[in-house]
C-alpha cells in the first residue's frame, strides 16, 4: 500500500492495525473527533501565517497523527505486526532532488508519524518537516538536516518506484485530490459506469454526444498543456509548478468518488459525523464499481501462478519459490467435491501482502484477500 499527503494517513491507519483493530476503529463516530487538524479559526490561521509563514503548527499535527499510527511506530515495526508493505512518497525541498519512496526496506527505523506529516506538508499550511527515527533503545530523535514536504508535489502516485522495488504491475488507485478529480472525465464510459448515450447500444458512444465530449476534452487538455508549458519555461516556481502537469494521478484502475460542490467548501474544516458517513458511503459505491476488474486481474495472476507452480514442480525448483504457487497448485489438483465443501475450503488460506499464505483454521469467518 502506498499513500501520499492526506492519503498517507489513511494508509498508515490500515498498515499499523490488524484486521480486528481496523474493524474496531474504522467507524465515523470514532474517526470524527480524531481528525481535528483544522481546529484553528481563520483569524488564527491568518495571524500564524503572517508571523511564521504557515497557518498550522507541525508539532500539533504530529501529536494528532499519532493516533493513526499507534504512537511512534516505525515502518519496520508496522510491517512485522501486520505484514503489509507501507510506502510514503516524499518530496525534498532541495532543488532538483528526486522524490523518494520510504518503507520498511528503504527507511526501516523512520517514525511513520513524521513521514506522514512530511508528506502532507503543503507549503503555506505547515513548514517542511525533518524525519524522525527510533533508536534500538526506543529513543526518538531527528535524523539529519534534510527537510521534506508534500509528496504529491513531484509524484502523487509512485508507480515507477513501486514497480521497481516491489515488482508491482497492477495499481488500484483511489484519487481524491480536489484539484484533480474534475479532470477525470471518461468520454466513452468508465469501469462500472458505461456510457448510456444513444440508449447504450454502442460501446463506442460518446457520453453527452460527440460535440460536448470533444469540447470538454479540448478545454481540459488545453488547460493541462498550458500548465505544462508554464512549468517548462519556469514561469511558475515551487509548489505550484507541478500542481496540474503531472502524469501520475491515475493507476491501472482509478477509483474516483462522486464529489459535490459543497465538498469544496468543507476542504479546510473539521468534518462532522454526517459528512464522514456520506464519504464512507460514496467511497464504498465507487470501489464496488471496480471490483469486477480487480477480480479479473487476480484470476489472471492466479492462473499464471498455477502454471509457474507446475513448471517448478517439474524441474524440481518448487521448494525455492514462494509458497503461494505451490499451495495454489495443491488446491487445483485436489479431488473435486461438492460445491458447498469447495466454497468452505476457499477460506482455508489467506493471501498475505508479502505473497505468502497463512493457514486459517476451519470454522473461521475470516476471508482471504490480497
TrEMBL record:
In the UniProt record, does the keyword Nucleotidyltransferase occur? Answer: no
Motif GXSXG, chain ranges = 3-7
PNPLA domain span: 1-163
Q: Does the keyword rRNA-binding apply?
A: no
Q: Which UniProt keywords apply?
A: Hydrolase, Lipid degradation, Lipid metabolism
Q: Name one GO molecular function term.
A: carboxylic ester hydrolase activity
| Biological-process GO terms, alphabetical | lipid catabolic process
Region of interest: Disordered: 314-345
What residue range is the signal peptide?
A: none
Q: Where is the active site?
A: 5 (nucleophile), 150 (proton acceptor)
> Hey, which family's this protein in?
Belongs to the PLPL family.
For this entry, the protein name equals: PNPLA domain-containing protein
Species of provenance: Minutocellus polymorphus
